[in-house]
Amino acid sequence: MEPMPAATLILVRERDRAIETHLLLRGSGAAFMSSKFVFPGGRIDPSDRDPAFWIRHGDLDPASLSKRLGGDVPVEEIVPSAVAAVRETLEEAGVFLAAGTESRKEEVDRIRALPLAEKLPRGWFKDEVAAGRWRLSFSRLYRWAHWITPERMRPRFDTRFFLAFMPEAQACRPDLREITKGLWIRPHEALEKNLTGQIPLS
């Protein structure tokens, strides 16, 4: 089975001179990693696969974007991954990594609340970005890792991981459907609690 392209974003913040990361608890009915704590992320949607559009609606030029997020990966390949990471973080954790020509708090809050709706139409994120003249904050992302799910697991994913610091003016909140809970925790504490079953990780 060929792995499906996907992207994940590791949100981090500093508290009491220590780094914390945000974990999301997937519901028991989830098809992948059910009842596990994960980072925001998911598969790359068809609407994420329009590099020309997303470069126009991003805050980095192609050369800078490729160097920062792709390394030796072509920009046409890395852009959909970066877009998916930003979109999935908005959908699952309620964090919007973008800036607009009029980035009023009310408009940012409106977009952050959209994933709470029962079901969003296909391509909704691209439509919102175009209508609001938003620019995705690619400059806030750092490339982190590239993992492919082992062959024995189903479904399989080819996932690029990014890292970003949490915007100070926003707060995480789960969608309460696919994601039932979110928490901030120091990485070593999450690993320790995974061993006791308190925070089951993937």
Tag the structure with descriptive keywords:
7-stranded mixed sheet, two-stranded antiparallel sheet, 6 helices, alpha+beta
Describe it for me?
By secondary structure, the chain is an alpha+beta fold. Helices cover 31% and strands 27% of the residues. The chain is built from 6 helices and 9 strands. It has helices spanning 51-56, 62-70, 75-93, 105-113, 124-132, 187-196, and strands at 4-15, 18-26, 37-38, 41-43, 98-99, 135-136, 141-148, 157-165, 179-185. Strands 1, 2, 3, 4, 7, 8 and 9 form a 7-stranded mixed beta sheet that branches. Strands 5-6 form a two-stranded antiparallel ribbon. β7 and β8 (157-165) form a beta hairpin. α2 (62-70) crosses α3 (75-93). It is globular, with a radius of gyration of 16 Å. It starts with a strand and ends in a 6-residue tail after the last helix. The mean pLDDT is 91.
Quick overview:
The chain is α+β, with helices and mostly antiparallel strands and 202 residues long.
Q: Fraction of residues in helices?
A: 25-40%
Shape: globular
Mean pLDDT: 91
Strands, count: 9
- Note the main sheet: 7 strands, mixed
Low-confidence stretches: none
Q: Could you tell me the strand content as a percent range?
A: 25-35%
The helix-strand sequence is EEEEHHHEHHEEEEH
CA-based gyration radius: 16 Å
Structural class of the secondary structure composition? alpha+beta
What distance lies between the first and last C-alpha atoms, to the nearest angstrom? 20 Å
Number of helices: 6
